[in-house]
Amino acid sequence: MEVVAAVLAWSISAVCQNNAAAQWLSPLCTRNNSAALANRLSSGALIYSPGSDGFIQATSRWSAYETPGIDLVVVPSVEDDVAQTIKYANQNNIPYIAVSGGHGAIITESRMQNGIEIWMNQLNTVEIDEDIARIGGGALSKAVSHSLWDAGKQTVTGGCECTSLLGPGLGGGHGLLQGRHGLVSDQFISMNVVLASGEIKTIDKTSDLWWAMQGAGHNFGIVTSVSVKVYDVQYSDWAYEVFTFKSDKVEGLYDNLNVHLLNNGSPPLNIVNYGFFMNDPELDPKPIIYLWVIQEGATSVDSIYTKPFHDLGPATTDIGSGTYLDVPRWVGWDNDAAPCQHVGLANTRFPIDIQSYNVQSMRKAYDLFTDVTKKTPELNGSFFLFEGYPLQGVKAIPSESTAYAFREDNLLISPVVSWVPSGSDVAQKATDFGKRLRQILYEGTGKSELHSYVNYAFGDETPQNWYGYEQHRQQRLLRLKNKYDPDRKFSFYAPVA
Ligand SMILES: Cc1cc2nc3c(=O)[nH]c(=O)nc-3n(C[C@H](O)[C@H](O)[C@H](O)COP(=O)(O)OP(=O)(O)OC[C@H]3O[C@@H](n4cnc5c(N)ncnc54)[C@H](O)[C@@H]3O)c2cc1C
């Protein structure tokens, strides 16, 4: 059933006024009285109920593991629809969650059951005015990048075409352009946010809430639109080389990455490196390691960055060039690639942010990955991500100025454990596997703190792991939470408290 709000309001209220029907439809008529909700919404808003095509599309997710339980989807067409839905849900004690790209996978989201999904899909505009763009709360990365590119502009977005701007951005947001400009959240200038009370507020750096929206923003409201800094495209050319390596190159590869690309925490401004290892039995019985070296402002990657990897003896190499818009296709982040599909797989990540590669730990992790995926074929589709984005723009922003706590970390590492959902036994094996891989890397850091990028988090981490160990950070988040969301309505995505 896919209907505009007004029609649904009429039909459900008619059914619910029939006493007999109301009895067996009681969940719909009382708890989720969609008619009463629909009456409050604009004519362009949509409501999807379970079983409809719209509902299936709105609730399908990148990961099918420990997902939120949705009884009803509201698709706002104007900002006030978000506010009305929140007020309605509060009055009826129904939980709610915002969804944009559907790539959130933290298991804390599953604490929401029998709730309303506010699907931001219709709030997807991109309006450009000189050096600022106003972007709708549900706009996806591809729409943002392509609209800006057509106007000769760019901003920092996540790399994947199918995640939203704000899903990543409210937790910091890493992307190809962060070396020049900082994180996605560092681009925010002002935003309209619907608070837990249902009040619509426009905030900018003068608001006490601003600090929290740049790193812990999922906890404080639903952003209906955000103004971001945009920049003239300076370098339209991009180039890449992709290497594959076999098992005997593990030490050499991560040593090379440390020495030649990480460069003691000052990697080149125009180089991104990204890779993973995974099983590809056609190429080798052991996992294959893929590495992309991507250069901005070049039609071929400068050999000073790639020679060490050629010298190591890759199994295969490939090269290519194009524009910024081509990068997602090269690395498999485009809308047609596997990571953008919602195909019912359970996908869980166990992230750790680190300073540099501990080569022995990478070997241990690789060997464990090999062993477990061989002995447990259900986990064979898992992979192990390692990402090295440029850092200058991120580190240029004072750490204490935003809730994003880990500007001093250099690399994002994340085992991604993937399986076809088939019961708790395999789920338990999967989570044990992910935790063991992360533990190896954690021990290899020699540090007491475990930093886990909130947007990759599994969900068993602590607020310290997501938002920083400093007491002042935790206290500030708690103070803001008590002020803006005292009833903990926004507590399903890495809750601060
Ligand atoms: C394939 C893939 C690629 C990724 N690439 C990157 C990357 O390049 N860089 C990076 O930093 N991260 C990346 N991530 C992680 C990503 O930041 C998170 O998965 C993020 O939650 C995805 O946002 P979404 O809108 O797609 O997901 P959703 O599930 O729609 O949203 C996740 C959460 O964000 C909140 N939310 C969404 N929209 C709003 C809004 N308008 N207002 C308030 N809250 C909102 C809600 O709490 C929601 O539960 C990637 C993840 C995947 C699976």
TrEMBL record:
Cofactors that this protein relies on: FAD
Signal peptide as annotated in the record: 1-22
Gene3D superfamilies cross-referenced by the UniProt entry: 3.30.465.10, 3.40.462.20
SUPFAM superfamilies xrefs: FAD-binding/transporter-associated domain-like
Keyword Glycoprotein: no
Keywords, comma-separated and alphabetical: FAD, Flavoprotein, Oxidoreductase, Signal
InterPro entries with a match to the protein in the record: BBE, FAD-bd_PCMH, FAD-bd_PCMH-like_sf, FAD-bd_PCMH_sub2, FAD-linked_Oxidoreductase, Oxid_FAD_bind_N
GO MF annotation terms: FAD binding; oxidoreductase activity
FAD-binding PCMH-type domain boundaries: 66-233
Family recorded in the similarity comment: Belongs to the oxygen-dependent FAD-linked oxidoreductase family.
Protein name, entry field: FAD-binding PCMH-type domain-containing protein
Native source organism of the sequence: Xylaria hypoxylon
